[in-house]
Amino acid sequence: MKIPIYQVDAFTSEVFAGNPAAVCILDAWIDDKKLQAVAAENNLSETAFLVRNDVGFDLRWFTPTTEVALCGHATLAGAFVLFVCRNWTAEKVRFQTRKSGQLTVVRRDKFLEMDFPSRPAHKRTSPAGLEEALGVAPKEIFGSAEDILLVLDSEKAVREVRPDFSALGRVDCRGIIITARGDRSDFVSRFFAPRVGIPEDPVTGSAHCVLIPYWADMLHKNDLHAFQVSKRGGELFCAYAGERVRITGKAVLYMEGVITI
Fold it and tell me: Is residue 242 in some structural domain?
């Protein structure tokens, strides 16, 4: 069996920045154990698998250790592969997912605009061990369906967090988002998910499903400019639309090849 594979850096216009994702194009779904094995072999935060359907593509995402319900940067990478590498001629591509419904990506010149579900967070208490693992005392703590959101005082505070990943992996949630007002943008963030095999994710589209409604409310504006201030870094242009959010960014091809199984 031979599977076309592409590696794309998402939310950036330069290689070696943004968030790398693998994109695999399948003729039909193969055994889940093989999908997980491929993702583990790729050893990237996400591998996206695409299978053609009647209106677009079925889409699934795997970290090196598990399947996830929603991933932004690998969706952006998948759309980039279709538009740029596979000559998808329509302006929009539709992805059908198992747990996040239909997602669409529209090509707008050099940008790709994703339509994702909004996931507003609600105030909650801090779970045991979280603040100690991060080494911070947040201004506020919120919880969403899968993640915990911590609001810090400044962009500098977000950049300076040095988590204890072993301790953070024992906190009962999928991932931890830290955020603050940005110095040169509306807001900045970082995302940690050691429980699903990703100590720190470079740029996380799904986290912005939580961040966008929070900052839209705080800043009283629906159009937002964001940076994820990880070591690789990434830029996102965001819009709040009630039950949906739009997340826009660029992507660039790093590698293409063939997997032989």
Answer: no
